[in-house]
Write a structure and sequence with these properties.
Its main location: nucleus. This protein is of the alpha+beta class and about 600 residues long. The chain has 18 helices and 26 strands.
Protein backbone atom coordinates (compact mmCIF):
# COMPACT_ATOMS: atom_id res chain seq x y z
CA UNK A 1 0.00 0.00 0.00
CA UNK A 2 2.89 2.40 0.74
CA UNK A 3 4.05 2.08 -2.88
CA UNK A 4 0.84 3.65 -4.18
CA UNK A 5 0.10 6.40 -1.64
CA UNK A 6 1.37 9.99 -1.61
CA UNK A 7 4.03 9.95 -4.29
CA UNK A 8 5.88 13.21 -4.94
CA UNK A 9 7.36 13.54 -8.42
CA UNK A 10 6.95 9.80 -8.71
CA UNK A 11 8.99 9.14 -5.57
CA UNK A 12 7.62 7.05 -2.72
CA UNK A 13 7.08 9.16 0.42
CA UNK A 14 6.12 6.49 2.94
CA UNK A 15 8.11 3.31 3.50
CA UNK A 16 5.87 1.56 5.99
CA UNK A 17 2.49 1.33 7.64
CA UNK A 18 2.49 0.93 11.42
CA UNK A 19 -0.62 -0.89 12.58
CA UNK A 20 -1.49 -2.00 16.12
CA UNK A 21 -4.55 -4.17 16.72
CA UNK A 22 -6.01 -5.53 19.94
CA UNK A 23 -7.16 -9.05 20.76
CA UNK A 24 -10.60 -8.25 19.30
CA UNK A 25 -9.17 -7.45 15.89
CA UNK A 26 -9.82 -3.72 16.35
CA UNK A 27 -7.24 -1.31 14.94
CA UNK A 28 -5.88 0.83 17.77
CA UNK A 29 -3.48 2.89 15.66
CA UNK A 30 -2.60 3.02 11.97
CA UNK A 31 0.14 5.37 10.79
CA UNK A 32 2.06 5.82 7.58
CA UNK A 33 5.74 6.37 8.34
CA UNK A 34 8.56 7.78 6.24
CA UNK A 35 11.28 5.68 7.88
CA UNK A 36 11.51 2.74 10.25
CA UNK A 37 13.02 4.94 12.95
CA UNK A 38 11.32 4.67 16.35
CA UNK A 39 10.76 8.42 16.31
CA UNK A 40 8.32 7.93 13.44
CA UNK A 41 5.77 6.10 15.57
CA UNK A 42 6.74 6.98 19.12
CA UNK A 43 4.08 9.71 19.22
CA UNK A 44 1.40 7.34 17.88
CA UNK A 45 2.07 4.79 20.62
CA UNK A 46 2.07 7.55 23.26
CA UNK A 47 -1.34 8.73 22.04
CA UNK A 48 -2.60 5.15 22.14
CA UNK A 49 -1.45 4.76 25.75
CA UNK A 50 -3.02 8.12 26.67
CA UNK A 51 -6.28 7.15 24.96
CA UNK A 52 -6.51 3.90 26.92
CA UNK A 53 -6.04 5.80 30.19
CA UNK A 54 -8.52 8.52 29.21
CA UNK A 55 -11.35 6.08 28.53
CA UNK A 56 -10.61 3.70 31.39
CA UNK A 57 -9.23 0.78 29.39
CA UNK A 58 -6.47 -1.53 30.55
CA UNK A 59 -2.96 -1.00 29.25
CA UNK A 60 -1.47 -3.79 27.07
CA UNK A 61 -0.42 -6.90 28.98
CA UNK A 62 1.16 -8.71 26.01
CA UNK A 63 2.52 -7.24 22.80
CA UNK A 64 3.23 -9.34 19.70
CA UNK A 65 5.66 -7.89 17.17
CA UNK A 66 7.48 -8.97 14.03
CA UNK A 67 10.74 -7.44 15.29
CA UNK A 68 11.68 -8.57 18.79
CA UNK A 69 14.55 -6.07 18.88
CA UNK A 70 11.87 -3.41 19.48
CA UNK A 71 11.24 -4.86 22.95
CA UNK A 72 12.88 -2.06 24.94
CA UNK A 73 11.17 0.59 22.83
CA UNK A 74 7.76 -1.02 23.37
CA UNK A 75 8.38 -1.44 27.09
CA UNK A 76 9.24 2.26 27.32
CA UNK A 77 6.09 3.13 25.39
CA UNK A 78 3.92 0.85 27.54
CA UNK A 79 5.41 0.39 31.06
CA UNK A 80 2.66 -2.17 31.77
CA UNK A 81 4.71 -4.59 29.67
CA UNK A 82 7.29 -4.67 32.47
CA UNK A 83 4.84 -5.73 35.20
CA UNK A 84 6.08 -8.83 37.08
CA UNK A 85 8.62 -9.60 34.35
CA UNK A 86 11.62 -11.63 35.47
CA UNK A 87 14.01 -11.27 32.56
CA UNK A 88 16.60 -13.90 31.72
CA UNK A 89 20.07 -12.69 32.57
CA UNK A 90 22.45 -12.30 29.64
CA UNK A 91 24.95 -14.57 31.40
CA UNK A 92 22.55 -17.02 32.99
CA UNK A 93 24.95 -19.86 32.10
CA UNK A 94 27.58 -18.51 34.52
CA UNK A 95 27.67 -18.90 38.29
CA UNK A 96 26.61 -15.75 40.14
CA UNK A 97 29.26 -13.50 41.62
CA UNK A 98 29.16 -13.34 45.42
CA UNK A 99 31.32 -11.17 47.65
CA UNK A 100 31.64 -14.04 50.12
CA UNK A 101 33.65 -16.19 47.67
CA UNK A 102 36.32 -13.48 47.35
CA UNK A 103 37.19 -13.41 51.04
CA UNK A 104 36.20 -9.75 51.27
CA UNK A 105 34.18 -8.39 54.19
CA UNK A 106 31.50 -5.70 53.91
CA UNK A 107 31.72 -2.78 56.37
CA UNK A 108 28.79 -0.30 56.35
CA UNK A 109 29.63 3.21 57.63
CA UNK A 110 26.99 5.88 58.31
CA UNK A 111 28.66 8.64 60.33
CA UNK A 112 31.33 11.16 59.39
CA UNK A 113 33.67 9.83 62.07
CA UNK A 114 33.34 6.19 61.02
CA UNK A 115 33.76 7.14 57.35
CA UNK A 116 36.91 9.16 58.13
CA UNK A 117 38.35 6.29 60.14
CA UNK A 118 37.70 3.81 57.33
CA UNK A 119 39.15 6.02 54.59
CA UNK A 120 42.24 6.74 56.71
CA UNK A 121 43.21 3.07 56.48
CA UNK A 122 43.34 3.49 52.69
CA UNK A 123 45.11 6.85 52.60
CA UNK A 124 47.81 5.51 54.91
CA UNK A 125 48.83 3.02 52.20
CA UNK A 126 49.58 5.61 49.50
CA UNK A 127 53.28 5.19 48.63
CA UNK A 128 55.46 8.13 49.54
CA UNK A 129 57.72 7.55 46.53
CA UNK A 130 55.14 8.58 43.96
CA UNK A 131 53.41 5.25 43.34
CA UNK A 132 49.66 4.67 43.42
CA UNK A 133 46.99 2.43 44.89
CA UNK A 134 43.72 1.28 43.31
CA UNK A 135 40.25 0.97 44.83
CA UNK A 136 37.06 -0.42 43.34
CA UNK A 137 34.54 2.42 43.23
CA UNK A 138 30.81 2.77 42.60
CA UNK A 139 27.85 4.85 43.76
CA UNK A 140 24.11 4.46 44.29
CA UNK A 141 21.27 6.98 44.44
CA UNK A 142 17.51 7.05 44.75
CA UNK A 143 15.46 6.66 41.59
CA UNK A 144 11.84 7.77 41.59
CA UNK A 145 9.47 5.28 39.95
CA UNK A 146 5.92 6.44 39.14
CA UNK A 147 2.86 4.20 39.79
CA UNK A 148 2.73 3.66 36.01
CA UNK A 149 6.29 2.34 36.01
CA UNK A 150 8.04 5.41 34.61
CA UNK A 151 11.53 6.35 35.77
CA UNK A 152 11.33 9.84 37.19
CA UNK A 153 13.90 12.06 38.83
CA UNK A 154 17.14 10.73 40.26
CA UNK A 155 18.32 11.88 43.66
CA UNK A 156 21.79 12.87 44.79
CA UNK A 157 24.43 10.25 45.46
CA UNK A 158 23.36 8.40 48.60
CA UNK A 159 25.91 5.59 48.90
CA UNK A 160 29.57 5.22 47.91
CA UNK A 161 31.12 1.75 47.71
CA UNK A 162 34.89 1.42 47.96
CA UNK A 163 36.67 -1.94 47.70
CA UNK A 164 40.26 -2.16 48.88
CA UNK A 165 42.37 -5.24 49.63
CA UNK A 166 40.07 -7.61 51.58
CA UNK A 167 37.35 -5.17 52.59
CA UNK A 168 34.47 -3.26 51.02
CA UNK A 169 33.27 -0.05 52.65
CA UNK A 170 29.64 0.93 52.03
CA UNK A 171 29.50 4.63 52.93
CA UNK A 172 26.12 6.25 53.54
CA UNK A 173 26.66 9.91 52.67
CA UNK A 174 23.13 11.25 52.07
CA UNK A 175 23.11 13.11 55.40
CA UNK A 176 26.53 14.63 54.74
CA UNK A 177 25.48 15.81 51.28
CA UNK A 178 22.31 17.32 52.73
CA UNK A 179 24.60 19.44 54.93
CA UNK A 180 26.64 20.40 51.87
CA UNK A 181 29.95 18.76 52.73
CA UNK A 182 31.64 15.37 52.66
CA UNK A 183 33.72 13.81 55.45
CA UNK A 184 37.22 15.30 55.21
CA UNK A 185 39.11 12.04 54.62
CA UNK A 186 36.67 10.95 51.92
CA UNK A 187 37.11 14.30 50.19
CA UNK A 188 40.90 13.84 50.27
CA UNK A 189 40.60 10.38 48.72
CA UNK A 190 38.33 11.67 45.93
CA UNK A 191 40.76 14.49 45.13
CA UNK A 192 43.92 12.39 45.30
CA UNK A 193 45.30 11.68 41.80
CA UNK A 194 47.37 8.71 43.02
CA UNK A 195 44.33 6.87 44.36
CA UNK A 196 42.96 5.20 41.23
CA UNK A 197 39.19 4.82 41.43
CA UNK A 198 38.44 1.96 39.07
CA UNK A 199 35.02 1.14 37.68
CA UNK A 200 32.80 1.45 34.63
CA UNK A 201 31.84 5.00 33.62
CA UNK A 202 33.66 6.03 36.77
CA UNK A 203 34.21 9.66 35.74
CA UNK A 204 30.45 10.17 35.48
CA UNK A 205 30.09 9.00 39.09
CA UNK A 206 32.86 11.34 40.23
CA UNK A 207 31.44 14.30 38.32
CA UNK A 208 27.95 13.64 39.69
CA UNK A 209 29.32 13.46 43.22
CA UNK A 210 31.37 16.63 42.80
CA UNK A 211 28.32 18.54 41.57
CA UNK A 212 26.21 17.29 44.46
CA UNK A 213 28.58 18.62 47.13
CA UNK A 214 29.44 21.86 45.25
CA UNK A 215 33.19 21.27 45.54
CA UNK A 216 35.60 23.56 43.71
CA UNK A 217 38.36 20.94 43.77
CA UNK A 218 38.24 18.33 41.03
CA UNK A 219 37.56 14.71 41.96
CA UNK A 220 40.18 12.91 39.92
CA UNK A 221 41.86 9.53 39.49
CA UNK A 222 39.03 7.78 37.65
CA UNK A 223 40.05 4.72 35.60
CA UNK A 224 37.47 3.28 33.21
CA UNK A 225 37.74 -0.51 33.05
CA UNK A 226 36.29 -0.73 29.55
CA UNK A 227 39.08 1.47 28.21
CA UNK A 228 41.67 -0.75 29.90
CA UNK A 229 40.06 -3.82 28.37
CA UNK A 230 40.07 -2.26 24.90
CA UNK A 231 43.72 -1.22 25.20
CA UNK A 232 44.57 -4.86 25.92
CA UNK A 233 42.54 -6.15 23.00
CA UNK A 234 39.84 -7.87 25.03
CA UNK A 235 36.96 -5.82 23.59
CA UNK A 236 36.60 -3.61 20.55
CA UNK A 237 33.43 -1.62 21.35
CA UNK A 238 33.44 0.28 24.63
CA UNK A 239 29.89 1.60 24.22
CA UNK A 240 28.40 -1.90 24.42
CA UNK A 241 30.45 -3.14 27.36
CA UNK A 242 29.14 -2.74 30.90
CA UNK A 243 30.50 -3.93 34.22
CA UNK A 244 28.44 -7.13 33.97
CA UNK A 245 30.07 -7.85 30.59
CA UNK A 246 33.54 -7.35 32.03
CA UNK A 247 32.71 -9.56 35.00
CA UNK A 248 31.62 -12.35 32.65
CA UNK A 249 34.58 -11.83 30.31
CA UNK A 250 37.36 -11.56 32.87
CA UNK A 251 36.08 -13.26 36.04
CA UNK A 252 33.76 -15.78 34.34
CA UNK A 253 31.00 -14.89 36.80
CA UNK A 254 27.52 -13.39 36.42
CA UNK A 255 26.99 -9.97 38.00
CA UNK A 256 23.28 -9.66 38.59
CA UNK A 257 22.16 -6.17 37.57
CA UNK A 258 18.55 -7.15 36.85
CA UNK A 259 17.13 -6.51 40.28
CA UNK A 260 14.58 -4.15 41.80
CA UNK A 261 17.14 -3.17 44.43
CA UNK A 262 19.05 -1.23 41.81
CA UNK A 263 16.23 1.20 41.01
CA UNK A 264 14.31 2.22 44.12
CA UNK A 265 13.86 5.07 46.58
CA UNK A 266 15.44 3.41 49.60
CA UNK A 267 19.13 4.20 49.19
CA UNK A 268 18.79 7.19 51.54
CA UNK A 269 17.29 5.07 54.32
CA UNK A 270 19.10 5.28 57.65
CA UNK A 271 19.43 1.50 57.77
CA UNK A 272 20.23 -0.36 54.56
CA UNK A 273 18.98 -3.92 54.22
CA UNK A 274 21.38 -6.83 53.88
CA UNK A 275 20.30 -7.17 50.24
CA UNK A 276 21.19 -3.53 49.60
CA UNK A 277 24.59 -3.90 51.25
CA UNK A 278 25.43 -6.99 49.22
CA UNK A 279 24.25 -5.46 45.96
CA UNK A 280 26.23 -2.27 46.58
CA UNK A 281 29.38 -4.15 47.57
CA UNK A 282 29.36 -6.37 44.48
CA UNK A 283 29.95 -3.57 41.97
CA UNK A 284 32.95 -2.18 43.85
CA UNK A 285 34.34 -5.65 44.50
CA UNK A 286 33.99 -6.71 40.85
CA UNK A 287 35.58 -3.46 39.68
CA UNK A 288 38.68 -4.05 41.80
CA UNK A 289 39.03 -7.72 40.81
CA UNK A 290 38.60 -6.97 37.10
CA UNK A 291 41.21 -4.20 37.35
CA UNK A 292 43.70 -6.54 39.02
CA UNK A 293 43.26 -9.14 36.26
CA UNK A 294 43.51 -6.57 33.46
CA UNK A 295 46.74 -5.18 34.88
CA UNK A 296 48.29 -8.63 34.51
CA UNK A 297 47.89 -8.29 30.73
CA UNK A 298 50.32 -6.22 28.71
CA UNK A 299 49.13 -3.56 26.28
CA UNK A 300 49.64 -4.67 22.65
CA UNK A 301 52.82 -3.13 21.26
CA UNK A 302 53.40 -1.94 17.67
CA UNK A 303 55.82 -3.76 15.39
CA UNK A 304 58.83 -1.74 14.31
CA UNK A 305 61.00 -2.48 11.28
CA UNK A 306 63.81 -3.63 13.55
CA UNK A 307 61.71 -6.15 15.51
CA UNK A 308 62.64 -9.80 14.97
CA UNK A 309 59.54 -11.67 13.83
CA UNK A 310 58.97 -14.91 15.73
CA UNK A 311 56.49 -17.32 14.19
CA UNK A 312 53.34 -18.12 16.19
CA UNK A 313 53.65 -14.98 18.33
CA UNK A 314 50.09 -13.83 19.19
CA UNK A 315 49.01 -10.63 17.44
CA UNK A 316 46.05 -8.32 16.94
CA UNK A 317 45.17 -6.81 13.57
CA UNK A 318 43.84 -3.25 13.66
CA UNK A 319 41.73 -1.26 11.21
CA UNK A 320 43.32 1.11 8.69
CA UNK A 321 43.04 4.01 11.14
CA UNK A 322 44.40 1.87 14.02
CA UNK A 323 41.40 2.63 16.24
CA UNK A 324 39.73 -0.77 16.46
CA UNK A 325 40.68 -4.45 16.40
CA UNK A 326 39.40 -6.34 13.37
CA UNK A 327 41.01 -9.77 13.88
CA UNK A 328 43.17 -11.93 16.14
CA UNK A 329 45.84 -14.42 15.17
CA UNK A 330 49.56 -15.11 15.13
CA UNK A 331 52.62 -14.39 13.03
CA UNK A 332 52.74 -16.86 10.15
CA UNK A 333 55.65 -19.08 9.14
CA UNK A 334 55.22 -17.59 5.66
CA UNK A 335 56.16 -14.11 6.82
CA UNK A 336 59.82 -14.86 6.07
CA UNK A 337 59.02 -15.69 2.43
CA UNK A 338 59.64 -13.28 -0.42
CA UNK A 339 56.12 -13.65 -1.85
CA UNK A 340 52.77 -14.79 -0.54
CA UNK A 341 49.67 -15.14 -2.73
CA UNK A 342 51.52 -13.22 -5.48
CA UNK A 343 52.16 -10.35 -3.05
CA UNK A 344 55.72 -9.21 -2.40
CA UNK A 345 56.65 -9.26 1.29
CA UNK A 346 58.51 -6.04 2.05
CA UNK A 347 59.87 -4.52 5.26
CA UNK A 348 56.50 -2.81 5.74
CA UNK A 349 54.45 -5.99 5.26
CA UNK A 350 53.85 -9.12 7.32
CA UNK A 351 51.98 -12.41 6.87
CA UNK A 352 49.71 -13.40 9.75
CA UNK A 353 47.48 -16.41 10.39
CA UNK A 354 43.97 -15.29 11.39
CA UNK A 355 42.25 -17.38 14.08
CA UNK A 356 39.32 -15.07 14.88
CA UNK A 357 37.55 -12.39 12.84
CA UNK A 358 35.91 -9.54 14.74
CA UNK A 359 34.95 -7.28 11.81
CA UNK A 360 34.16 -9.42 8.74
CA UNK A 361 33.75 -6.38 6.48
CA UNK A 362 37.20 -4.95 7.23
CA UNK A 363 39.18 -4.41 4.01
CA UNK A 364 42.79 -5.62 3.89
CA UNK A 365 44.17 -3.29 1.23
CA UNK A 366 47.59 -4.96 1.10
CA UNK A 367 45.96 -8.31 0.25
CA UNK A 368 44.26 -7.53 -3.08
CA UNK A 369 41.84 -5.17 -1.28
CA UNK A 370 39.83 -8.12 -0.01
CA UNK A 371 37.51 -8.13 2.99
CA UNK A 372 38.21 -10.52 5.85
CA UNK A 373 34.98 -12.42 5.21
CA UNK A 374 36.08 -13.15 1.64
CA UNK A 375 38.84 -15.42 2.99
CA UNK A 376 36.29 -17.81 4.48
CA UNK A 377 36.35 -19.31 7.94
CA UNK A 378 39.53 -19.15 10.07
CA UNK A 379 42.25 -20.35 9.95
CA UNK A 380 43.56 -18.40 6.94
CA UNK A 381 46.55 -16.19 6.19
CA UNK A 382 46.65 -12.57 5.06
CA UNK A 383 49.26 -9.99 4.15
CA UNK A 384 48.90 -6.75 6.08
CA UNK A 385 50.99 -3.75 7.05
CA UNK A 386 53.24 -3.98 10.08
CA UNK A 387 51.75 -0.69 11.27
CA UNK A 388 48.35 -2.40 11.58
CA UNK A 389 49.65 -5.26 13.74
CA UNK A 390 50.25 -5.32 17.50
CA UNK A 391 52.06 -7.97 19.53
CA UNK A 392 49.95 -9.00 22.49
CA UNK A 393 50.07 -11.15 25.59
CA UNK A 394 49.02 -14.70 24.75
CA UNK A 395 46.64 -14.67 27.72
CA UNK A 396 44.58 -11.95 26.07
CA UNK A 397 43.86 -14.27 23.15
CA UNK A 398 41.98 -16.63 25.46
CA UNK A 399 39.41 -14.01 26.44
CA UNK A 400 36.31 -14.10 24.29
CA UNK A 401 34.19 -10.93 24.43
CA UNK A 402 30.40 -11.27 24.82
CA UNK A 403 29.02 -12.34 21.47
CA UNK A 404 26.82 -9.69 19.83
CA UNK A 405 23.34 -10.69 18.81
CA UNK A 406 23.02 -11.49 15.15
CA UNK A 407 19.96 -11.21 12.97
CA UNK A 408 18.70 -14.38 11.29
CA UNK A 409 19.76 -14.90 7.71
CA UNK A 410 16.83 -15.50 5.42
CA UNK A 411 16.99 -17.47 2.17
CA UNK A 412 15.78 -15.74 -1.00
CA UNK A 413 12.05 -15.24 -1.26
CA UNK A 414 10.44 -18.21 -2.92
CA UNK A 415 9.76 -17.79 -6.63
CA UNK A 416 7.53 -20.84 -6.84
CA UNK A 417 4.72 -20.39 -9.31
CA UNK A 418 1.10 -20.45 -8.21
CA UNK A 419 -2.00 -21.47 -10.09
CA UNK A 420 -4.60 -18.90 -11.09
CA UNK A 421 -6.69 -19.80 -8.04
CA UNK A 422 -3.77 -18.97 -5.77
CA UNK A 423 -2.94 -22.53 -4.74
CA UNK A 424 0.62 -23.68 -4.55
CA UNK A 425 2.14 -25.43 -7.52
CA UNK A 426 3.63 -28.23 -5.42
CA UNK A 427 6.38 -30.09 -7.30
CA UNK A 428 5.56 -33.26 -5.39
CA UNK A 429 1.94 -33.17 -6.52
CA UNK A 430 2.54 -31.59 -9.91
CA UNK A 431 5.56 -33.05 -11.68
CA UNK A 432 4.70 -31.45 -15.01
CA UNK A 433 6.68 -28.31 -14.09
CA UNK A 434 10.37 -27.94 -14.77
CA UNK A 435 12.88 -28.79 -12.10
CA UNK A 436 12.73 -26.48 -9.08
CA UNK A 437 15.95 -27.67 -7.50
CA UNK A 438 17.38 -24.96 -5.30
CA UNK A 439 14.04 -23.22 -4.70
CA UNK A 440 12.84 -22.74 -1.14
CA UNK A 441 9.51 -22.10 0.51
CA UNK A 442 8.60 -20.81 3.94
CA UNK A 443 6.76 -22.92 6.49
CA UNK A 444 4.02 -20.28 6.61
CA UNK A 445 3.31 -20.91 2.91
CA UNK A 446 3.33 -24.67 3.37
CA UNK A 447 1.01 -24.54 6.35
CA UNK A 448 -1.94 -23.16 4.38
CA UNK A 449 -1.98 -26.18 2.08
CA UNK A 450 -2.72 -29.86 2.43
CA UNK A 451 -0.01 -31.35 4.62
CA UNK A 452 -1.10 -34.94 4.20
CA UNK A 453 1.65 -37.22 2.92
CA UNK A 454 1.87 -37.97 -0.79
CA UNK A 455 2.99 -41.33 -2.15
CA UNK A 456 3.46 -40.21 -5.75
CA UNK A 457 7.19 -39.52 -5.57
CA UNK A 458 10.08 -39.54 -3.12
CA UNK A 459 8.95 -42.85 -1.64
CA UNK A 460 12.19 -43.22 0.26
CA UNK A 461 11.71 -39.92 2.07
CA UNK A 462 8.09 -40.50 2.95
CA UNK A 463 8.91 -44.00 4.17
CA UNK A 464 11.46 -42.49 6.53
CA UNK A 465 8.91 -39.94 7.66
CA UNK A 466 6.31 -42.62 8.33
CA UNK A 467 8.84 -44.72 10.23
CA UNK A 468 9.70 -41.71 12.35
CA UNK A 469 6.03 -41.01 13.02
CA UNK A 470 5.28 -44.64 13.90
CA UNK A 471 8.23 -44.78 16.28
CA UNK A 472 6.64 -42.03 18.32
CA UNK A 473 5.12 -38.78 17.06
CA UNK A 474 7.57 -36.17 18.22
CA UNK A 475 4.87 -33.79 19.39
CA UNK A 476 1.50 -35.42 19.96
CA UNK A 477 2.50 -37.95 22.58
CA UNK A 478 4.20 -35.33 24.66
CA UNK A 479 1.70 -32.52 24.28
CA UNK A 480 -1.34 -34.62 25.05
CA UNK A 481 0.02 -35.24 28.53
CA UNK A 482 -0.23 -31.52 29.29
CA UNK A 483 -3.71 -31.54 30.76
CA UNK A 484 -4.07 -28.19 32.55
CA UNK A 485 -2.55 -25.06 30.96
CA UNK A 486 -3.29 -23.23 34.24
CA UNK A 487 -0.20 -24.95 35.64
CA UNK A 488 1.83 -22.83 33.23
CA UNK A 489 0.90 -19.69 35.16
CA UNK A 490 3.16 -20.77 38.02
CA UNK A 491 6.21 -20.07 35.86
CA UNK A 492 7.90 -16.63 35.91
CA UNK A 493 7.05 -14.21 33.10
CA UNK A 494 10.22 -13.71 31.07
CA UNK A 495 8.84 -11.08 28.69
CA UNK A 496 5.52 -9.54 27.73
CA UNK A 497 6.87 -8.58 24.30
CA UNK A 498 6.77 -11.68 22.14
CA UNK A 499 7.68 -12.60 18.61
CA UNK A 500 4.56 -12.93 16.48
CA UNK A 501 4.25 -16.64 15.76
CA UNK A 502 3.18 -16.12 12.13
CA UNK A 503 6.44 -14.31 11.46
CA UNK A 504 8.28 -17.15 13.19
CA UNK A 505 6.87 -19.60 10.64
CA UNK A 506 7.99 -17.27 7.86
CA UNK A 507 11.58 -17.45 9.17
CA UNK A 508 11.85 -21.17 8.35
CA UNK A 509 12.65 -21.92 4.71
CA UNK A 510 12.77 -25.44 3.28
CA UNK A 511 13.70 -26.84 -0.09
CA UNK A 512 10.56 -27.54 -2.11
CA UNK A 513 12.02 -30.93 -3.04
CA UNK A 514 12.85 -31.98 0.52
CA UNK A 515 10.99 -35.18 1.29
CA UNK A 516 10.43 -34.28 4.95
CA UNK A 517 9.29 -30.68 4.48
CA UNK A 518 5.65 -31.51 5.19
CA UNK A 519 6.45 -33.54 8.25
CA UNK A 520 8.67 -30.77 9.60
CA UNK A 521 5.87 -28.24 9.05
CA UNK A 522 3.33 -30.46 10.78
CA UNK A 523 5.49 -31.11 13.81
CA UNK A 524 6.61 -27.49 14.17
CA UNK A 525 2.95 -26.49 14.05
CA UNK A 526 1.94 -29.12 16.61
CA UNK A 527 4.79 -28.17 18.94
CA UNK A 528 3.63 -24.54 19.01
CA UNK A 529 -0.16 -24.85 18.86
CA UNK A 530 -1.94 -27.08 21.38
CA UNK A 531 -5.69 -27.56 20.74
CA UNK A 532 -8.24 -26.66 23.38
CA UNK A 533 -9.55 -30.03 24.58
CA UNK A 534 -13.25 -29.03 24.52
CA UNK A 535 -12.97 -27.63 20.99
CA UNK A 536 -11.08 -30.72 19.90
CA UNK A 537 -13.90 -32.95 21.17
CA UNK A 538 -16.46 -30.80 19.32
CA UNK A 539 -14.47 -31.10 16.09
CA UNK A 540 -14.25 -34.88 16.47
CA UNK A 541 -17.99 -35.10 17.19
CA UNK A 542 -18.80 -33.08 14.09
CA UNK A 543 -16.27 -35.01 12.01
CA UNK A 544 -17.79 -38.37 12.97
CA UNK A 545 -21.05 -37.31 11.28
CA UNK A 546 -19.36 -36.52 7.97
CA UNK A 547 -19.04 -38.84 5.00
CA UNK A 548 -16.35 -40.01 5.01
CA UNK A 549 -15.75 -39.51 8.76
CA UNK A 550 -13.15 -36.89 9.75
CA UNK A 551 -11.08 -36.38 12.89
CA UNK A 552 -9.17 -33.46 14.34
CA UNK A 553 -5.92 -35.18 13.34
CA UNK A 554 -6.93 -35.52 9.70
CA UNK A 555 -8.47 -32.05 9.42
CA UNK A 556 -5.40 -30.27 10.79
CA UNK A 557 -3.48 -31.61 7.77
CA UNK A 558 -6.10 -31.50 5.03
CA UNK A 559 -8.03 -28.34 6.05
CA UNK A 560 -5.77 -26.21 8.26
CA UNK A 561 -7.62 -22.93 7.68
CA UNK A 562 -10.99 -24.50 8.50
CA UNK A 563 -9.60 -26.00 11.69
CA UNK A 564 -8.08 -22.71 12.87
CA UNK A 565 -11.48 -21.09 12.53
CA UNK A 566 -13.31 -23.77 14.54
CA UNK A 567 -10.79 -24.86 17.18
CA UNK A 568 -9.00 -22.68 19.68
CA UNK A 569 -5.30 -23.35 20.14
CA UNK A 570 -2.94 -22.41 22.97
CA UNK A 571 0.76 -21.54 22.66
CA UNK A 572 2.69 -23.13 25.56
CA UNK A 573 5.29 -21.17 27.57
CA UNK A 574 9.03 -21.48 26.83
CA UNK A 575 9.79 -24.20 29.39
CA UNK A 576 7.17 -26.46 27.77
CA UNK A 577 8.18 -25.63 24.21
CA UNK A 578 11.81 -26.25 25.05
CA UNK A 579 10.93 -29.72 26.31
CA UNK A 580 9.00 -30.43 23.10
CA UNK A 581 11.81 -29.13 20.91
CA UNK A 582 14.45 -31.33 22.57
CA UNK A 583 12.16 -34.34 22.31
CA UNK A 584 11.55 -33.56 18.63
CA UNK A 585 15.27 -33.29 17.88
CA UNK A 586 16.10 -36.50 19.78
CA UNK A 587 13.51 -38.51 17.84
CA UNK A 588 14.61 -37.19 14.46
CA UNK A 589 18.30 -37.66 15.19
CA UNK A 590 17.59 -41.34 15.88
CA UNK A 591 15.44 -41.85 12.78
CA UNK A 592 16.54 -39.28 10.20
CA UNK A 593 19.57 -37.22 11.24
CA UNK A 594 18.98 -33.50 10.75
CA UNK A 595 21.37 -31.84 8.31
Amino acid sequence: ITKHIARVDGEQVFTGLLTVTNDLGQIRTCNLVATKSHSQFESALFQMRHSLDTYGHDQPQIFYTDNISDRLFLENSFPSLRNNVVAIDKYANLDPFEVSITGMTIFPKDTSQSINDAISTILDDIPVDGGHIAVGFDTEWNVEISPQGYIGQSGKTAVIQIAYQNRVYVLQISTALAEGKLPQKLKLLLEHPRVFKVGRLINIDLSRLQSACHETCIFTGGVDLAKLAKERGLIHDISKCGLADLCALVLKKRLNKMTLIRLNEQWENANLTQEQLEYAAKDACVSLLVYEQLMKLSIPTPLSKSDVLISHSPILVYSTDNTSIVAKGQISNSTHSSFFDDIKITAQRIVVDISEVLVPGAIIRTHHKRSLESFGSPLFSIVCLRSHVRLCNGTAMSFNPPEPSTAPVFPPTSSIQRHADGTLNDPILDTSEASVEGESISVSELWDHDLSESDKVYDNHTTQANDCRESGDSSDGLLLRIEDPQDWLNQPIRSRVLKDVWHVFHMFYLSVTHGLRKQFTRELRDAIFIPDEEDRIRVNTWGAQQNPPQTYESLRNSSPQFLRQHCKHVIPPPHIQGMVAFHYIDVHEEQTPLK
